[in-house]
Amino acid sequence: MSHLDELISNANHLFTSNVLTARDGGLHPPTDVLLSWPKPNYINPEDRGWTSSIILLVFLSITFIVFVARIWARLAVGKNSGLDDILMSLAMLPLFGLTISAILAIRIYGFQWHVWDQTKETLITAREITMAIEINYMLCTTLIKISILFFYRRITASLTNAFVYCVWASIFFCAGYGIVFVLLIAFTCHPANGFFHVFDLSWRLQNELTCRNEGAIIVAVAAISTVQDFIIALLPVFLIVKLQIPRTQKLALCGIFGLSLITCVCGIMRTIYATKVYYFTYDITWVAYYGWIWTALEADLAVICASAPALKVFFKRYFSVTNTRYGYAKSGTDSRQMPAALSSTQKSRGKDFTSSTSQSHITAGGSYDKDVPMYGIKVSQGLDVHIDERDDLSQKSDASTRNLTALPLPQESGWNGASQWIQGCRTVCAALRPSSRSSSQTRAQDKDIEIGSAK
Asked: Biased composition, Basic and acidic residues: where in the chain (predicted)?
């Protein structure tokens, strides 16, 4: 009997020493809380069910489809992949690990039950899967955030240095945060494998174990991550405000980038449940169930929102363009509709259009005084001036531009040293900003370029 009393005394000392002090919630409940728990039910315990696991699988599938569409749009359609796509691809590996770990946690490894229904095995597996979820979360979310920031850096190369410096500062902030907290989580306890045996009484009696404040680390991770989500979501606002584009386009861009605010909501919910698990309840496995769901959803939605800008090209290629084959396509130069056979894709191939189908067509040396739409190209062929639309699908391709600006080959016979221009072959292509207008100065510059043998 005295031996049993000594064992209980040692156990109480283990769970109440150093930072492992009883609070209003956390990993180590006091004796009065333990005595208030119901008797363990190892036969038919209360269970959470499969609903949340199915939802996480659906979101993982959607995320993977969106990721594949993004990579296809960048590699095959736009041919403009970058470092942000590489980082996003790397993030998909821990993302799969995170979602699968969360599903295992809430279905098999103990987080589907109350803490008093845990078995000796799940007391260890619950800690192992906790480590897996936290490490995978840190890796995938850090890579996703840096990927988004590199995308900002990519589209703001010509903007003010202040914005670029903000982007670089955010990149270093996210990278430093990821490295520091991965190490803190991995080495929360000394020895490191003691993290898995916090609730293993027999192991604790035979080994010395010291741990940092796990609750403070996890709550800090969730809170800082949420702050970073807000920073990344609001950064494009300062960029969009300075763009010289119509208000409707600004609102559309704000909507696309504003999708990342959804991840901020998930981050807030994750922070709330992390705080509740470590400071406001001792039934940690039952409450942490919701925290793991929000954790996985945050990472999945981050990939989906980060891929939204790249998916514009994908949807335009496989939906908007193909749908105009037998219908009507909108002209790139005005708001009127024209048959799909006269779409901008064919205009870029040199099809002739009359003034009845496009208001941007000018002949007989007239001047063009209307606003040129974004991605518009002013094409001057002799005295004929018109505006072509540069399709987003071929922004990386310069084949059509080469065709427009190609000089004629000299005649094999009769070449007298002067430029013998074939009628209509002198072509000048000038890419204009949306707010620019044609002027006499522009016409003079075009004339200088077109001179063949003025000397």
From this structure: 444-455
In the three-class reduction of DSSP (H, G, I as helix; E, B as strand; rest coil), residue 74 is classed as helix
**446 in helix, strand or coil?**
helix
Structural contact between residues 168 and 161, judged by C-beta atoms closer than 8 angstroms: no
Any domain includes 379: no
383 found inside a domain:
no
For the residues 119-146, what does the mean pLDDT come to? 95
**Domain, as residue range, for 162:** 51-319
- Taking residue 110's Cβ as centre, other Cβ atoms within 10 Å add up to 28
Place of tokens 């003010």: 160
Q: Tokens 């790397």 — which residue? A: 90
Residue at 41 is within a domain = no
Hunting for tokens 């959803």 — which residue is that? Answer: 297
Evaluate whether residue 371 is within a structural domain: no
CA 172/CA 134 separation, integer angstroms: 21
d(Cα 227, Cα 317) in Å, to the nearest integer? 36
Whether residue 138 contacts residue 181, with contact meaning beta carbons closer than 8 Å, is answered with yes
CA gap 45, 434 in Å, rounded: 66
Instruction: Lowest mean pLDDT of 77-91, 135-149, 424-438, name the range.
Output: 424-438
CATH of the domain at 216: 1.20.1070
CB 10 within 8 A of CB 204: no
Residues 303-355: tens digit of each pLDDT: 998 888 777 766 666 665 444 444 444 444 444 444 444 444 444 444 444 44
Of 133, 178, 101, the residue nearest 277 (C-alpha): 133
What's at 84, amino acid-wise? D
Residue-wise pLDDT tens digits, 242-297: 777 777 777 777 777 777 788 999 999 999 999 999 999 999 999 999 999 999 99
- CA distances (Å), origin 82, targets 71, 72, 233: 10, 13, 21
Q: What is the DSSP string of 155-213?
A: HTTTS-HHHHHHHHHHHHHHHHHHHHHHHHHHTSEESGGGGGGTT-HHHHHHS--EE--
Determine if residue 382 is left, alpha or beta; phi over 0 gives left, psi from -120 to 50 gives alpha, anything else beta.
left
Is the pLDDT score of 119 beyond 60? yes
Tally Cβ neighbours within 10 Å of residue 77.
Answer: 19
- Given a contact cutoff of 8 angstroms between Cβ atoms, the answer to whether 376 and 390 are in contact is yes
Per the structure, the count of domains in the chain is: 1
Average pLDDT, the chain: 74
